[in-house]
From TrEMBL:
Region Disordered: start-end pairs: 301-321, 355-381
Lineage: Eukaryota, Viridiplantae, Streptophyta, Embryophyta, Tracheophyta
InterPro entries: ConA-like_dom_sf, Kinase-like_dom_sf, L-type_Lectin-RKs, Lectin_legB_Mn/Ca_BS, Legume_lectin_dom, Prot_kinase_dom, Protein_kinase_ATP_BS, Ser/Thr_kinase_AS
PANTHER family tied to this protein: PTHR27007
Ranges annotated as biased composition (Pro residues): 301-315
Organism: Oryza glaberrima
Name of the protein in its database record: non-specific serine/threonine protein kinase
Length: 705
């Protein structure tokens, strides 16, 4: 009948409505919470309890050895280590099984990362020993998921690619690698002066830069630290030698660096890991420990999409069963209405229960250190006040882009104005749906800084924890951070201003380390966290990585080292032990920056991507008696010579490679304030005395105690 829908069409529309209500109902009941991928992991060995999220490809395999650490620890053989001894023509990969975000297409932000790993390269005696070793291994970043090249690839590719030497990888096959090459292959233009070299590869196994090592250096127990800085785009590697075939090796560390924009050569998400290969020349490649930390917060997984409503099937015209169709439609409508009413009632009750559960979780959210709930302490009146979410939204003009002051690893900072208090503030907004690491930083910052009171610390005014948002409210420090004035378009800092900043930062650390009831280890001392008020007085901020240590303990072993490349105590990266001495190291680096206005690491333009290291450079000048050459040229020699010498000497003293030779912050401040004797330092920068974990490999490597 014209103008009337066929009964089957109406019925299917009603069924679609039922499916709509059902999908909404089920989605509200069962939709999982977004899950964020961890960005920091630390495997001290690869025993049965340390194999989570580790992916093996090719000939890679876990190998248990109780004698390695005494606790059932183990390692990963990256290339073959077969019982029958046939380890030639082997390829393997070991990688983190989850994607690691390298850059964010929405914000343009690129990650900084630090990774440290200990490993063994061991040419077995039964296969010719060092006279038949090859081909090498590499740390890599590549498209996710990791894909081991197919069988038949050349050994000189080190398990990185299937391409020939003259090809450049594209698409999902792109990679960046730091290689530990033990066989000089002329096909890929390896250095031919010796057998061993380090290299940086970008989408090709023909290295962009190399460092030739003495032959047989890459044998035995070693530790490497690879860092990438998103500001300078420098990929830097430091190799520390442990035990070799003849026992401990006391050689200087080897350094290699290359400037590369990872955003332009790699996809947004990458796999990180290790690859290795052998040919007729053979060796074992064993990963003993691995730490990795990135500054870029991953995005939460999107919620599942509700299934679409079913489409009505085609009809064959109007039928004559009007009464039956009407009865069917009426019954279906009754079912829909009944179901909808039940669904609405259940949804309302469910949402009410979930709201109460969220409020209960917020009120009872335990701190990771199990030392009391900082939020409860604040609500009980012992700390800053709680702000309503809408107050902070209004204060920042709905977090307008023009109010944004900066961006950090776990969120952004906005300028705000609290009308009721008539107060300008800085509001730190953590990324929505922050991972556990982001929430830990938020809670750590509340727990630590809300209880501290010092003129050289940024004051926490309040906080907000609700609506899936984490916000901290600080006093607004008008002259922003120290790095803006050292390297950006800020105010030129005269020498008296620089001395005032140095003394203020030292005073803040003295309070944190020795004058408060517990020792507060900041763990991220750097110019971008040194804020300057209207008179350019120091205000140390960002306590997201801070930890409390009892004065009697002194040292705390962390699950993973944290901080910023160039400022992290090198020993802390390898041993994982954080202490007041770790902060003192970072303080020393900042002192040298204030004097020299040079970053702790940068590329040397005239030395084929050689790496400039501020501490080493200043120490060389100190040994030559040319310490004044380190001063910022913009000062135009307008500084107090004695003060400048004191600041440099204290900076080197604090950045001593051996933490046992560093001063306490109190001793350093006595010298800076001219009330203590100048430190006596060696003319040459000492070699670090700490050592990485040492393993025994089939009786061919010595063990250390």
């Amino acid at each position: 009948m014209a103008g009337v829908l066929p009964a089957t069409t109406t019925t299917y529309n009603i069924v679609g409505l039922i499916f709509f209500f059902f999908s909404v109902f089920c989605d509200d009941l069962y939709s999982p919470a977004p899950v964020a991928v961890a960005l920091t992991f630390n495997h001290t060995n690869f025993g049965p309890d340390e194999q989570t999220n580790i992916r093996l490809e090719g000939d890679a395999a876990f190998s248990a050895d109780v004698s390695f650490s005494g606790d059932g620890g183990g390692w990963v053989d990256i290339s073959a280590n077969r019982l029958d001894g046939s380890i030639d023509h082997s390829r393997g990969r070991v990688s983190y099984a989850l994607p690691v975000p390298l850059w964010d297409a929405a914000t343009g932000e690129v990650a900084s990362f630090t990774t440290g790993f200990s490993f063994v390269i061991n040419p077995p005696k039964q296969d010719g020993g060092i006279n038949n070793k090859g081909a090498g291994m590499a740390f890599f970043l590549a498209g996710f998921p990791s894909r081991l090249p197919s069988a038949g690839s050349y050994a000189y590719n080190l398990g990185l690619t299937n391409q020939t030497a003259d090809q450049v990888a594209a698409g999902d096959d792109r990679f960046v690698a730091v290689e530990f090459d033990t066989f000089n292959d002329t096909i890929v233009h390896d250095p031919d002066a010796t057998y061993d070299h380090l290299g940086v590869d970008v989408n090709s196994v023909v290295s962009k830069t190399t460092l030739t090592l003495p032959s047989f250096t890459l044998v035995g127990n070693m530790t490497a630290v690879v860092e990438y800085d998103n500001v300078s785009s420098i990929l830097a590697m430091r190799l520390h030698l442990g035990y070799g075939l003849s026992g401990p090796r006391h050689r200087p560390d080897y350094n290699l660096s290359y400037k590369v924009d990872l955003k332009s050569v790699l996809p947004e998400q990458v796999a990180v890991g290790f690859s290795a290969a052998t040919s007729t020349s053979v060796e074992l490649h064993q990963l003993r420990s691995w730490y990795f930390s990135s500054s870029l917060e991953p995005k939460a997984a999107p919620p599942p999409v509700a299934p679409p409503s079913p489409s009505p099937p085609p009809t064959s015209g109007s039928g004559s069963g009007g009464v039956v169709a009407g009865a069917t439609v009426g019954a279906a409508l009754f079912v829909v209405l009944l179901f909808a009413m039940v669904a609405v009632v259940v949804l309302v009750r469910r949402r009410h229960q979930r709201k109460k559960m969220r409020e209960a979780e917020e009120a009872n959210d335990d701190d990771d250190d199990t030392e009391g709930d900082p939020i409860m302490e604040i609500e009980n009146g012992t700390g800053p006040r709680r702000f309503a979410y809408h107050v902070l939204v209004n204060a920042t003009k709905s977090f307008a882009a023009e109010e944004k002051l900066g961006q950090g690893g776990f969120g952004a900072v906005y300028r705000g104005y609290l009308r009721e208090q008539g107060l300008a503030v800085a509001i730190k907004r953590f990324i929505k749906d922050s991972s556990n690491q982001g929430r830990r930083e938020y809670k750590s910052e509340i727990k630590v800084i809300s209880r501290l009171r010092h003129r050289n610390l940024v004051q926490l005014i309040g906080w907000c924890h609700g609506r899936n948002e984490l916000l901290l409210v600080y006093e607004l420090v008008p002259n922003r951070s120290l790095d803006v004035h050292l390297y950006g378009n800020g105010t030129f800092l005269t020498w008296p201003m620089r001395i005032n900043i140095v003394i203020g930062l030292g005073s803040a650390l003295l309070y944190l380390h020795e004058e408060w009831e517990q020792c507060v280890v900041h763990r991220d001392i750097k110019p971008s966290n040194v804020m300057l008020d209207e008179s350019f007085n120091t205000k140390l901020g960002d306590f997201g990585l801070a930890r409390l240590i009892d004065h009697a303990d002194g040292v705390q072993t962390m699950t993973h080292p944290s901080g910023t490349p160039g400022y992290i105590d090198p020993e802390c990266v390898i041993t994982g032990k954080a202490s007041a001495e770790s902060d003192v190291y970072s303080f020393g680096v900042v002192l040298l920056e204030v004097v020299c206005a040079r970053r702790p690491m940068s590329l040397l333009d005239d030395q084929n991507n050689g790496l400039f290291r501020l501490v080493e450079w200043v120490w060389d000048l100190y040994g030559q008696g040319a310490i004044h050459n380190a001063a910022d040229k913009q000062l135009n020699n307008d500084y107090d010579v004695v003060e400048m010498e004191r600041v440099v000497a204290v900076g080197l003293w604090c950045a001593h490679p051996d933490r046992c030779q560093r001063p306490s912050i109190r001793a350093a401040m006595m010298v800076l304030r001219s009330s203590g004797p100048m430190p006596m330092l060696p003319a040459r920068m000492p070699v670090a005395t700490y050592a990485p974990p040492v393993a025994s490999s089939e009786g061919q490597l010595s063990s250390s105690t």
